[in-house]
Amino acid sequence: MSPFVAELIGMMLLILLGNGVVANVSLTKSKGKGGGWLLISLAWGMAVFVGVMVAGPVSGAHLNPAVTIGLAIAGKFAWASVGPYILAQMLGAALGAFLVWLTYKDHYFATEDPSAKIGTFCNTPAIDNTISNLITEAVGTFVLVFGVLFLVEPQFNSNVIANDVVGLGSIGALPVAFIVMAIGMSLGGPTGYAINPARDLAPRIMHSILPMGTKGSSYWWYSWIPVVGPILGAAIAAGLFLAL
Question: Could you tell me which of 194, 243, 230, 244 has the C-alpha nearest to residue 70?
Answer without folding.
Answer: 230
